[in-house]
Design brief:
Layout lengths: L1 E10 L2 E11 L4 E5 L6 H9 L6 E6 L2 E2 L5 H6 L2 E4 L11 H6 L14 H6 L1 H4 L11 H14 L4 E5 L7 H17 L3 E6 L2 H7 L2 E6 L2 E7 L5 H6 L4
Parallel strand pairs: 3-8, 3-9, 6-7, 7-8
Antiparallel strand pairs: 1-2, 1-4, 4-5, 9-10
Length: 231
């Protein structure tokens, strides 16, 4: 289980997170929602270790990782699909996938067949440069690159942003399959309400660096959530 407990995060003198807590369990999707600029990505950066927290704790798989560097978290099964995809445009699809090998033991440094079963379009594009792919294909590549690391915690930061509807459905299917295996905890950051609602087992809504709504999907009140998503 991932257990984020009352973390505060600052950028200089500006406080981005105020006492934020979150839990994520294997086989379940925890969805974090909110407008732009409310602290969702800062929370993901705190979990993966790219931004230090001022106070609070982050525990993963029974171990306190609050002060652990990013690469050490990755080697313990934490993987992030960042907002904006951040693939390497001049590397081929295969080379992009192979960058995920850095955090896994040498005997496991191969691209699993499952990656191409989930994203068959990538098998036919292995020699194409990442920058030549469409936005939706790049998003699939970014998720596949994370899966190459064999994660047990997968963080997806707004995977539907700028993506065509057909590929959004494909990504939804992939998330369902991964959660259904029962061995991976998934944290999904999203503003697209219908996508989040349909996938979430539990949800939390953020506003101005704080959690303002949370609970199981069955207790989600659409109007209350949408109020914090509208501009």
């Amino acid at each position: 289980m991932l257990d984020v407990e009352a973390i505060d995060l600052y950028y200089g003198a500006s406080q981005a997170l105020k006492g934020v807590s979150l839990k994520a369990e294997p086989g379940r999707v925890t969805c974090v929602m909110g407008r732009n600029g409310v602290g969702k990505t800062s929370l993901m950066r705190a979990i993966c270790g790219s931004q230090p927290v001022r106070s609070g704790t982050i525990t993963w798989d029974g171990q306190d990782i609050t002060a652990m560097p990013t690469h050490a978290r990755a080697s313990r099964g934490v993987a992030v699909v960042p907002q904006g995809r951040e693939i390497f445009p001049l590397l081929t699809v295969e080379e992009n996938l192979r960058t995920g090998f850095a955090s896994v033991p040498r005997p496991l440094r191969h691209i699993q067949d499952e990656v191409f079963e989930l994203f068959p379009v990538l098998r036919d594009m292995l020699r194409r440069r990442g920058g030549d792919l469409s936005g939706g294909q790049q998003q699939q590549l970014a998720i596949a690159r994370a899966l190459v690391t064999r994660p047990r915690l997968l963080i997806l930061d707004e995977p539907t942003e700028g993506i065509q509807p057909s590929i959004i459905k494909d990504i939804e299917t992939v998330i369902r399959i991964l959660a259904g295996r029962g061995d991976m905890a998934i944290v999904l950051v999203e503003q697209y309400f219908e996508f989040a609602r349909d996938l979430a087992d539990t949800f939390m809504v953020m506003d101005r660096g704080e959690v303002v709504l949370e609970g199981p999907r069955e207790e989600m009140v659409e109007d209350d959530v949408r109020r914090y998503l509208s501009v």
